[in-house]
Specification:
mainly alpha
Length: 159
């Protein structure tokens, strides 16, 4: 777990190559022992670094890994990974190339991010901002769909 958190710190400091390398090592170790929090933390670091580095395929692959391991995770982790997926999918699409599913995911992430306990981790916010997506706060998010629905929507867009 310490390596996954160190990878996140490296990414936050702008050391993307080192962060990704350490995140991948932490991911392998987490998978070897089946430790879901380490897998999730490493996947988040890798996805954020890949998104920041304009590696859309790598960002989506890492996000998929994290999302598939997030069934016992807190909502914040799911919102963070879904934010990265939305940012990568929206980046460069242009107004005519926007997919309704991607726009729906972005709206749902914004609603979750505006709810108590749903704000994404800083590492995901920075990666999304780098890709051109800044979350717009929703004054009254109203009733939210279950986090499992958000996870499923994001996973569907990781392919």
């Amino acid at each position: 777990m310490a390596e996954a958190l160190e990878a996140q710190l490296l990414v936050l400091r702008g050391e993307m190559a080192q962060g990704r390398s350490l995140a991948r090592q932490a991911l392998l170790k987490g998978e070897e022992i089946g430790f879901q929090p380490a897998i999730l933390a490493a996947a988040l670091a890798d996805a954020a670094a890949a998104a920041w580095s304009n590696d859309a395929r790598g960002a989506l692959r890492a996000a998929r890994t994290g999302l598939t391991q997030s069934d016992q995770a807190d909502e914040t982790a799911v919102v963070s990974l879904a934010l990265i997926v939305a940012a990568v999918r929206l980046d460069g699409a242009g107004p005519t190339g926007l997919d309704a599913d991607v726009l729906g995911l972005e709206r749902e992430v914004s609603r979750w991010a505006s709810s108590p306990g749903g704000a994404p981790y800083t590492i995901a916010v920075h990666a999304a901002r780098r890709r051109g997506l800044t979350l717009t706060p929703v004054a009254d998010p109203g009733p939210l769909a279950p986090v499992a629905d958000l996870r499923r929507r994001a996973l569907d867009l990781c392919d």
